[in-house]
Design brief:
heterodimer; A: about 450 residues; alpha+beta; six-stranded antiparallel sheet; about 25% helix; about 40% strand; globular; B: alpha+beta
Chain lengths: ~450, ~450
């Protein structure tokens, strides 16, 4: 891969680039899908992506391809330079200088390449079996899948930066359908790991099935303001809202409800949120971000105080700060932009049962639909389902309600943080949390 | 490039260890992108990718593999991997591949891929300037330009061989108007399987002003009253039909037991004035294709006729499962994905009512000028949709704009309540992409319609 990168650097220079940066990725992926204990699909693929960014003066052009032949590389080099010459100038664009060191983290399961397709199929089927065996009311399944990828990334630039790493990522999960008296309900669960050994398919199947059963025949409740306990799969939407609000570019453009609140107390003292690109075992860790900047751990919120925003090179230069190693490419053909790495709420000591036990009237939310979360205004509204809590115990199943508030209010309303931190979407994770008040809109 | 001969050989290898059907999908594409925000070109890029996707079907199992490399040995490995699921009974490949003759389609006059980069930048800058110059209260303008040129070849073990090239062009504009504490976005745009001639009528200036004007109009918007009332959905807002009804008619959703329409073929699911079709044969729109991504020639499929459910949208896998005829709806985002049932252009067909008459007849209600985005639960048919531009109707006239309205309802119940269908059938010029784990371009069209009663979500208590 380095050879391709070095060649491309040369071609870019010959085409007239003042500076260039190459981002190469090569991955092997597998996907297994099952439905109702039968194999539905098997997918295997290798993907090669080559992306070249060039600066002509302070003008940036991007060209990408999946073809590593000489003629293709020369063509991409010429294209990128042509685009750079045509675009507008921006003095804040820059590439990463070679850093003195990178964090040393293990991110590759070396055994994964030797696991056979048959073993992977068996794993998914065992996940289904655990769910179906859990309760006779489980009648169906959907989106049940196994996905893995082993990816090699190589970043090189004309300033002498040269780094590469190989990582593994595996994800298993799905939805199971429970049915009783003609009513149907779905329950979801997902697990994402770097290492095959850490996968627990039966736990995933059982959890999803339990969630489906828990909210069977759920009905709306009367509207009002109540305390709520949010399980990780639901609380994650709140965490995402905050992750988007601390995006340094959004803050700079005043497109965040947190933009003028640095160093202020914006949340309850129980809230500490971290963004950590070096976190072991979590899938959004890597030695460098997608511009080649070393990753790091940073306290975004500490005991309720807003301390740090997330930056890439561009935004850091604009606000006279340093990059925090948060540059991400949504895919190899896209410019890097600020994104959280492993972003999570630090776990506390509360057990979920105790959070529930302390509520006389409230809602345990185990599932949600929609994502009306606006990081600019802070408005938050999602469809919710779960169990009503009465006198510290779980009461009737609930569904068809919405819970709504404002992210600013929610941050202050966190009055219990669970000890059960899990990654939910990639490296964005959370424990179970309790909010002292939220508006439930039902009947 | 991949030759018919190579395809034929690979198909043979694919079915060697068993399987009933094999398919080779070759694709070569080029894309250009320009993004402008806050008066700065944030992205200017060109990309190409070439590759092959290989599918083998055996019973209920689908094997899929894709490769960027066209090296014969690599392709053979990809084929063998895809065929791993196929064990046992083997069906042989057809005697020979026969080239499908596709219906002629209107010529692309100005292929977007050949436009010089400078012109793309000028186009985006023009739209930006037009939006900003329209009013000093316009503060944030965001513009995205995208074009795609795609050449593909499909060969399958039934003997089908298809080749086509498509061009897709899109411009999307969002303008933000701010007046003190009030702010509201306005949107505009155009897209379709067409070249730069799309900008002959819908020039960047016109589109820029349109987005700005909408944002300015909506600055005066009052809070939306919540409750049940008649709703007139203005022409061109067909995305609500696509989302609220269309997804429930895709055969994979039906076969998984996740569609409220599953057991309703031949039954009444809408009022008698409602007829809905999936129609890729309209030229130049987001969903206008000559052939789907499995090599099936595109066709108009009647979904709901005079209120009665007539059909679903199939790909090969679902059609085989149902014993139904192919409808040409097997689509995929690229060679890296296997096809699944997708919509093309979702069309609610023209009626006979005069749209102005429909408004005059409506004493009070909500007029939806521009619908926003929404979500549907296909199993129940329940949906929620945001309204980007809505107006209160008072005494048969539009009285004042209202903000952040949402439409809450159920697909079947809503269509049963349609009592007026205008004669002004129109496509949404913005078009869009439909996501279902993979993105495909689609189109939406409808005339002005009136729904007798809908639940409006509003902020005014």
């Amino acid at each position: 891969m380095f050879d391709v990168a070095q060649k491309l650097l040369r071609y870019a220079k010959n085409s007239g680039a003042d500076q260039s940066e190459i981002y190469l990725t090569k991955s092997t992926e597998h996907e297994i899908r099952t439905s109702k204990m039968k194999l539905e699909g098997v997918k295997q693929a290798t993907t090669l992506g080559i992306a070249l960014r060039v600066l002509c003066g302070k003008k940036l052009g991007l060209a990408y391809t999946s073809d590593s032949s000489e003629s293709s590389l020369k063509s991409i080099a010429a294209r990128a330079v042509e685009l750079a010459r045509a675009t507008t100038e921006d003095e804040y664009i820059d590439f990463q200088d070679p850093p003195k060191e990178y964090p040393n983290i293990s991110i590759l399961d070396r055994s994964l390449g030797n696991i056979s397709i048959e073993e992977k199929i068996d794993l998914v089927l065992s996940m289904e079996k655990a769910a179906f065996d859990c309760d006779k009311r489980i009648v169906g399944s959907d989106y049940v899948s196994y996905n893995d990828a082993i990816s090699e990334v190589c970043i090189t630039n004309s300033k002498g930066l040269m780094v590469n790493y190989t990582e593994s990522a595996i994800s298993i999960g799905g939805a199971f359908v429970a049915e009783e008296d003609g009513f149907k309900q779905m329950g979801w669960e997902r697990q994402t790991e770097r290492y095959w050994e850490r996968l627990n398919p039966s736990r995933v199947g059982v959890k999803a099935a339990e969630r489906a059963i828990l909210t069977l025949k759920g009905k709306p409740v009367p509207s009002g303001v109540y305390p709520v306990v949010l399980e990780p799969l639901v609380a994650i939407k709140f965490i995402y809202g905050i992750a988007n609000a601390v995006n340094g570019e959004s803050v700079r453009l005043k497109k965040s409800f947190l933009c003028d609140k640095k160093d202020e107390e914006v949340a309850s003292k129980l809230v500490t949120m971290i963004d950590d690109g070096t976190k072991e075992n979590w899938v959004d860790s890597s030695p460098v971000d997608d511009e080649g900047s070393p990753t790091m751990a940073k306290e975004v919120l500490k005991e309720g105080v807003l301390l740090n925003f997330l930056y890439d090179i561009y935004t850091a230069r604009k606000v006279d700060a340093n990059t925090t190693g948060n540059a991400r490419r949504a895919s190899y053909g896209v410019n890097p932009a600020i994104s959280p790495t492993n972003f999570f709420l630090l776990p506390g000591k509360y057990k979920k049962e105790n959070m529930i036990g302390e509520i006389s009237d409230g809602l345990l939310v185990t599932g949600s639909i929609g994502f009306r979360v606006n990081s600019i205004t802070g408005d938050f509204s999602i469809g919710a389902s779960g169990r009503w809590i009465r006198g510290g115990k779980l009461a009737q199943p609930v569904s068809g309600v919405t819970i709504a508030s404002n992210l600013a209010e929610m941050l202050k309303a966190v009055d219990a943080v669970g000890d059960d931190l899990v990654p939910v979407y990639g490296g964005v994770g959370t424990p179970t949390i309790r909010l002292s008040r939220i508006t439930i809109a039902g009947e | 490039m991949i030759s018919a001969n190579t395809c034929f050989k690979l198909l043979d290898v694919a079915l060697y260890s068993g399987g009933e059907f094999a398919e080779i999908y070759y694709e070569s594409r080029e894309t250009n992108l320009v993004e402008m925000e806050d008066e700065r070109i944030r992205s200017l890029s060109y990309g190409n990718s070439t590759g092959v996707g290989i599918r083998v079907i055996k019973g209920e199992e689908v094997g899929y593999a894709h490769s960027d490399s066209l090296e014969p040995e690599t392709l053979k490995q990809a084929v063998l991997t895809s065929a791993k699921i196929g064990n046992g009974k083997r069906k042989s490949v057809a005697e020979m591949l026969q080239r499908t003759h596709l219906p002629s389609s209107p010529q692309i006059k100005k292929p977007s891929g050949k436009i010089p980069s400078k012109e793309r930048i000028d186009l985006v800058k023009k739209a930006d300037e037009a939006a900003r110059d329209e009013d000093e209260k316009i503060r944030g303008v965001k513009i995205g330009y995208y074009d795609l040129t795609k050449h593909f070849i499909i060969a399958n073990s039934d003997g089908v061989l298809v080749e086509d090239e498509v061009v897709y062009t899109s411009l999307r504009i969002q303008a933000l108007a701010i007046n003190g504490k009030k702010r509201h976005p306005g949107v505009s745009g155009c897209s379709g399987h067409i070249g730069w001639e799309i900008f002959d009528d819908l020039s960047p200036d016109v589109l820029g002003r349109e987005a700005a004007d909408m944002a300015i109009r909506m600055l005066k918007a009052k809070e939306t009253p919540a409750g049940s009332m008649p709703v007139i959905i203005g022409k061109g807002n067909g995305v609500i039909i696509h989302e609220a009804i269309g997804h429930g008619l895709e055969a994979d959703t039906v076969q998984k037991g996740r569609s409220v329409y599953g057991d309703k073929l031949g039954k009444v699911v809408a009022s008698s004035v409602v007829t809905i079709a999936d129609d890729p044969t309209h030229p130049f729109r987001g969903g206008s294709i000559r052939v789907d991504d499995e090599g099936t020639p595109a066709q108009k499929t009647l979904l709901i006729e005079g209120g009665v459910l007539r059909g679903f949208l199939f790909d090969r896998v679902t059609a085989r499962r149902s014993g139904a005829a192919l409808t040409g709806n097997g689509r995929r985002q690229s060679f890296r994905f296997y096809p699944i049932p997708r919509m093309t252009n979702t069309c609610l067909l023209s009626g006979s009512d005069d749209p102005e008459e429909i408004l005059r007849e409506t004493k009070k209600g909500l007029y939806v000028k521009r619908i926003g985005g929404g979500q549907v639960n296909t199993a129940s048919g329940d949906y929620v949709f945001g309204v980007l531009e809505g107006w209160l109707i008072e005494n048969g006239k539009l009285s004042c704009p209202v903000r952040e309205a949402s439409l809450i309802g159920n697909g079947i119940e809503t269509l049963l309540q349609v009592d007026r269908v205008g004669n002004d059938f129109s496509f949404d010029t913005r078009g869009g992409f439909c996501g279902k784990g993979q993105l495909v371009p689609v189109g939406f069209a409808q005339p002005t319609i009136r729904v007798k009663a809908m639940t409006i979500g509003g902020t005014k208590k």
